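Predict both folds.
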Amino acid sequence: LQECKIQNSSREYCKIFAAEARAVPDFGAVPEIIPLYLIYRPANNIPYATMEEDLGGPCEQYCVTERDGSLVARGTSEIVLKCCTFQHWVYQWTNGNILVTDMEGVGWKMTNVRIATNLKGYQGLKESCFPSLLEQFVAAHQCNHYCSILGLKTLEPAKPKGSKSPSMGRKSAQSSPQLQK
């Protein structure tokens, strides 16, 4: 249940990111986080399972959390750079409260996402979820071309506040996505 909530909430952020990126000329393709479904199988020894679309190939790791707790972008391909830009965007959108830490997939379709947050109770987490990764991301993130064309600001440690869009060129106000409890 927890994995479904995290992946599907990250998917909602990704949809908003995609809409903003599509409004910028020359941004190009954007990552898509595929939905993860929880299914109930009452006649099975393990009554709950998750199910998602078959991506049609082996998953590649684009952005991962290493065993030592460090965040690593795997390469400098367009997909990796746009995943890093998405991470920056989510961090900025949520005023430093949430970070999508792990992204892997096939092509532009992402799965197995993880988050770090300092919001107690986010997605049903009883405790904070790797809040040190938020600080590390701020220190380690190198803005790239895609961060620049979206108008994202250089990262600084943020004080928790309400959420708003980091996009500079927005013509009409839009509220932030609701966090699921």
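Second protein follows, with its predicted structure tokens after the sequence.
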Amino acid sequence: QKKRRAATARRQHLKSAMLQLAVTEIEKEAAAKEVEKQNYLAEHCPPLSLPGSMQELQELCKKLHAKIDSVDEERYDTEVKLQKTNKELEDLSQKLFDLRGKFKRPPLRRVRMSADAMLRALLGSKHKVCMDLRANLKQVKKEDTEKEKDLRDVGDWRKNIEEKSGMEGRKKMFEAGE
């Protein structure tokens, strides 16, 4: 038990020491980024001095517009480069998947297609055989069941109605009832 306690205590001490080192490293990186940012701003954005005359203000505005245009061009160029590199990365990752043999399954859509159309799509111009699936099915003849035979023996119900209709039919029914 003492060994276990010592091991866990040592592990916790190492963890806390690593966390302290990580915190100091993060603080150093943040300070370095801030210094780098200040240097970049000082280099690329000189302090603004507003001139007193209207002519000098117009010249300053023209310079600022020219800088804005150049920055927009740079931004556009970097966006295009980023899109190209992303496309290249996608292509390379697809090639990597192909080389490994693990394929990403594309999303499939349901398509109604006959067997002939499917063979034409797969084989192209080589497809010459017509595949009628219904022609290969067996034809099954209906066997007469006992119920159907009984119904045929009874006959058509309409004939019985026609015989019983009118006065003669009613008279027969009345006489048969007695």
